[in-house]
Amino acid sequence: MDFFLVRRRGFPAIPTVPLPFYPRSAGRTRLAPGGEERADGVVKPFVELAWIESGGGRMLVEEQERRISAGDVVIFYPRAPRLNIAGKAGLVVRWLAFDGDNAESWMRSYGYGSLLPGVGTPPESAFKRYERALVSGTSRELRRAVTTATEVVEQAGAGVAGEVADSNLVTEYITAVERLFSDPGADVNTICAELKIHRATLSRAFRNAGRGTPGAYLREIRLEHALEFLAAGCPVAEVAHRCGFWNASYFSQAVKRITGLPPGKLRSLQQ
Hints:
Arc Repressor Mutant, subunit A, 8 strands
């Protein structure tokens, strides 16, 4: 791991000038392909905005591993556990941090999620202004750093409206799948036509939400219901029909792929 770090002058003391929060540190972290950055047992009492500059991998976001890539922004709150794992192309993160009694409430007041996907390139000039203010440490420069941090946070949230729209699309599709999974004629294209959305738009929304693909979700729901019906003792042909599988052979293969057993054998074991 390679990193560059700037802390405010006089750290760790909290400045005496009254501010809504106190600029704490900033820098750039580089992880080689497959590299990890952990903070096991270390309590980090500050808010950090991590902007993925290049590469990708996984990060622990709200205690769940999430895939991240260049242009994503992750917001870490005080005491949040940390785990960053670089992908095949490595991982470069541009970040800034701030602390103080009101730091967390100020950040949460924006209403952002902890993962903001596809925001874009980090504003390097703003990060450099923030770092220069930290080095100076004067009351005037710390006020400027607060303004700069606000600028970065607002740029990070530029795509929040799109994130909400994506979430709504995913919810609409999920609701439609629950209603239509038993129809063998229902597929991603027909559901998109009913919802009046383009398939590419829906696929992007699923990707941004970390939900895989619309087609995979439809298959998962059909198989989930199929396994419930088999456990209840329903005949195999009936289950295939009730779960929207137009081809019994394909249904058998799909069940065996996830359970290791054909549906007939699985049904008999659960009686």
